[in-house]
Design brief:
With 659 residues, this protein is mainly β. It is built from two helices and 58 strands. Strands 1-58-57-56 form a four-stranded antiparallel β-sheet, with no helix packed on it. The chain has a four-stranded antiparallel β-sheet with strand order 3-4-5-6, with no helix packed on it. A hairpin with a 2-residue loop joins strand 36 and strand 37. The longest helix is centred in the last third of the chain and has 9 residues.
């Protein structure tokens, strides 16, 4: 498995994609999460993501092209794409928003996904979408509240399930009889239903199914509509009499029960493809026998078949949870990467060394979590070591357990979900646990008294949050014992001014460790003597709104910046007074701030970057819509050049002052 992941992820980012407007470059890596695929006229392939982005591949010789975003939100999950096989550029999308209660809708594009308009159901979380092959104006949409139908190409919609029915809700799948658009099957979180009169009357079709099954996919056989397939939590079923009786098909293990999609080859109806949480399964005899043709650890969300790609053989595309798109030119027997131009990776965190900002560490989601390292500002990457020092219970750290990465004065550091801290010192080839302890009495001792103090020390101190600040020779962290200053050997001292515990919201240390700024119990505490004493002042917002605190030396001024859920604040008098920075910057949640060579850059929760050339007085928006992703790390890898990790766009590079 490692060799396969390595070959896929040793991405040569020297082949950087073309720069976007405003100096953006998409570094990759190629691949990422795919939720939906659709085949349109001329063989165009449409790809939908979990943040509203639509990529299009016009033909096999051209790379994927990011056409834009459906709507204005960044949480639009494109659960289904239905492209018109006759009308070029016409495509429908089923969308639901990740924010609870926000709804979604059915969207339509007539220009190949370049622009979109909402055509209905804006208050509904639309999870299923189908059209009638023989009656193209008929569109069906499945939502959390039921099934809706449009008979005029999406201009108007009517609910065709009872509004108050407790069972005909939470629709996951739909299918239409190709002979008669009034015969409709719908799958819910609890078993399938059917109507033969366009929704006037519904009845359950459950004979032979294991009760309480979530129906994730439905497929009516195009060559024999008496035959219907469905996937449920308990496996894949087939009916030979339009759902009157179901038989469970054998051959797919119970572990692969989450079958996200069932797709039929229109040229060879006996061939069906089942995309599951444990790879792609193929039957070539109508479901009598199945074979898995991909690795078991591939999570397949979508399947599409291009029937006219080659004489007698269909091209099969699969959209995966983290590997992007894979393609088969031999009817699903083997697959190769199909991601040129498509990058939609999840970078959980990106950080860089203070002394060598071109040295980067990245935690990325792909088939689990992976830790990668770059020495050339993100041009190329290699797997970072996870090996532990001898004597540990396991030989390697597990990247899935990483909560936060740090660039410490001594090398890379990581906090695990358990709270443990591990350090990879510069020049070391293995990680060691960074064990912390506090002497019971920090006063100077000699001889036997020093030994007694060591015996009575408090061992195994763990930080109570993932926040950590660093000076040039120490780390500062909040614990149950209060705010501590810890050195590389793990010796920690309570800071007298902050050693009473309490609720620490944020803190910052100067390079020499003498100046400390701490948000504690709703107040700002400022110390200029390394934490021995402090003065206290009010905050401009409640402590629950505080996200981070930074002390930055900008243009000769010692400005303190406060990131909050209500916007950005700054103080030029160590927190005595505060000014809200709104000139061009949104009033919402400011997640990160970085001081560059001659600029400030801030990222906001709703996505995108804002840049200030005048120490935070005014701000300019610096992103196109494709880059309006949530940022997970910003590093100035060279003067005026930012390398950025994002939650959905992979790695981006931005030239602050375009050439």
């Amino acid at each position: 498995m490692f060799a396969r992941v390595l070959s896929a992820l040793l991405f040569g980012l020297s082949t950087v994609m073309a720069a976007q407007a405003h100096g953006w470059q998409r570094l990759g890596p190629p691949g990422g999460m795919v939720l939906s695929l659709g085949i349109g006229a001329g063989g165009a392939v449409y790809l939908g993501t979990a943040d509203g982005h639509i990529f299009v591949k016009e033909n096999s010789e051209r790379p994927w092209e990011l056409r834009g975003r459906i709507g204005s939100r960044t949480d639009a999950v494109v659960s289904r794409l239905v492209a018109d096989r006759e009308r070029a550029g016409v495509v429908l999308a089923a969308v639901w928003y990740q924010q609870p209660g926000a709804g979604g809708g059915v969207f339509r594009s007539d220009d190949g996904a370049r622009t979109w308009r909402l055509v209905g159901l804006q208050n509904e979380a639309v999870r299923a979408l189908e059209t009638s092959f023989e009656h193209s104006p008929v569109i069906l949409a499945g939502t959390r509240t039921g099934v809706f139908r449009s008979t005029d190409d999406g201009k108007t919609w009517r609910r065709i399930t009872p509004a108050d029915d407790p069972e005909l809700r939470n629709v996951d799948s739909l299918a239409v009889d190709p002979r008669d658009p009034l015969v409709i099957y719908t799958g819910t979180y609890h078993l399938p239903w059917k109507t033969t009169d366009g929704g006037k009357n519904w009845f359950p079709v459950t004979a032979g199914l294991i009760d309480d099954s979530d129906i994730m996919s439905l497929r009516v056989d195009l060559s024999n509509p008496e035959r219907v397939f469905l996937s449920a939590c308990s496996g894949i079923y087939r009916s030979e009499n339009q759902g009157a009786q179901w038989s469970k098909l054998q051959g797919i293990p119970y572990a692969a029960r989450r079958t996200q999609a069932i797709v039929q080859d229109p040229q060879k109806p006996q061939t069906l493809y089942a995309g599951t949480t444990e790879g792609l399964w193929v039957t070539r005899d109508g479901g009598e026998s199945w074979e898995r043709t991909t690795p078991k650890d591939w999570v397949v969300n979508a399947v599409a078949v291009q029937p006219d790609s080659a004489p007698g053989q269909a091209r099969v595309l699969i959209g995966t949870e983290s590997r992007g798109v894979e393609v088969s030119e031999d009817e699903g027997k083997s697959f190769v990467d199909y991601n040129e131009g498509f990058t939609h990776e999840v970078v959980r965190q990106l950080t860089g060394e203070q002394e060598d900002p071109a040295h980067l560490l990245m935690l990325m989601n792909r088939d689990g979590s992976l830790l990668w390292e770059s020495h050339d500002a993100g041009e190329t990457w290699v797997p970072a070591t996870l090996a532990k020092e001898e004597g540990s219970s396991r030989a390697h750290l597990v990247a899935e357990s990483f909560e936060k990465l740090y660039a410490s004065p001594w090398g890379w550091m990581v906090r695990l979900s358990s709270g443990q801290l591990w350090i990879l010192e510069r020049g070391a080839g293995k990680w060691r646990e960074w064990k912390l302890h506090i002497p019971m009495n920090s006063a100077k001792r000699t001889g036997a008294s020093r030994q007694a103090a060591a015996i009575h020390s408090i061992p195994s101190v763990l930080p109570t949050s993932s926040d950590m600040a660093f000076s040039q020779d120490a780390a500062f962290m909040s614990t149950k014992e209060g705010l501590l200053r810890c050195t590389l050997p793990g010796n920690c001292l309570r800071l007298r001014a902050f050693g009473r515990g309490g609720s620490f919201s944020a803190f910052q240390a100067s390079r020499d460790g003498s100046a400390l700024f701490v948000v504690l119990d709703g107040k700002l505490a400022t110390s200029i003597d390394g934490g021995q004493t402090a003065t206290w002042s009010d905050l401009p917002v409640s402590s629950s709104s505080v996200l981070w605190l930074k002390d930055l030396d900008l243009a000769g001024y010692n400005d303190l910046f406060l990131g909050t859920r209500e916007g950005l604040y700054s103080s030029s008098d160590h927190g005595t007074s505060w000014k809200r920075r709104l000139q061009g910057l949104p009033a919402g949640e400011v997640e990160q701030l970085i001081a560059g060579h001659d600029f400030l850059a801030a990222s906001v929760r709703e996505g995108g970057m804002y840049v200030s050339p005048d120490a935070g007085k005014t701000w300019n928006r610096n992103f196109d819509d494709p880059e309006r992703s949530r940022f997970t790390g910003m590093v100035e890898t060279s003067p005026g050049v930012l390398t950025v990790g994002t939650q959905s766009e992979g790695l981006l590079r931005w030239q602050v002052h375009p050439q």
